[in-house]
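Hey team,

Sharing the Integral membrane protein TerC family run so nobody has to redo it. Sequence (236 residues) first:
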Amino acid sequence: MLEFFSTLHWGAVVQIIVIDILLGGDNAVVIALACRNLPDKQRTRGIVLGTLGAIVLRVVLIAFAVMLLDIPFLKFLGGLLLLWIGVKLMQPDHDEHEISASDRLWAAVKTIIIADAVMSLDNVIAIAGAAEAADPRHRLTLVIFGLVVSIPLIVWGSTLVLKLLDRFPAVVLLGAGLLGWIAGGLIIDDPFIDRWPALNTEFAIYAARVGGALLVVGVGWLLKRRALAEGNRAAG
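Structure output:
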C-alpha cells in the first residue's frame, strides 16, 4: 500500500478528479431525476447505490474505452436509449400501492446505472487519457481511486439537484432536456455517421443536440399529459 502511494502519479489523480467533477453534473441530474419519486427515507440509499453501481460499470467501460467508441452504431443506439430514459423520467410516478418501496428503489438504481453507462461512452476516454501518464501497473487502480474520491461530490450534487426538483418541479424539464441534448450528441457522433461529411459540421452537431432536447421534452410532456388525464378519469 505504501509503495502504491509513493509511486502514485498525483497529477493524473488530480486530473481524473477534476474530470469527474466537470462531467459529474450530468450524472447528478440523472440520479436526482431517477430518485425524485422515492420516499424521503430511501432517497439517500438510491443516490448512493446508483452512484456506486454507475462507477463500477464506468471502471469496466474505461478498460474497453477505445474499442467501445469505435464500434459502429453503439453510440447511435446508446443515444436512442438515452432519449427513451429522458422521456421516461418525465412521467408521473406510479401509484404507491402498485409498486412496493423496495421495487421503486431498485428501479431507480437500474435507471441510474443504465443512463450513466450510456452517457459515459465519451467521458471514459478523458479519464483513460488522464491515466495514461501513470505507471502502467497502476492505471486501473488509479482510475478506481479517482472515481472513489469523486463519489462524495456526485452524491452531494445529486442531493442538491433533488432539493431543486422538490422546490421547482419545472427543473424536471431542464433535466430531461439535458438528457436529450446528450443523446443527440451521441447519435451524431457515431462512427457510422462519419461517412456523411455534411453531418460532421458544428451546425449539424448543434442541431442534433437541440433536436434531441426538444424531442425528449415534447414527447415526455405529451405522454405525461395523457397519463395524468387517464389517471383523473380513473379517479373520477
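Residues 134 and 179 are 33 Å apart (CA to CA).

Ping me if you want the raw files.
A.
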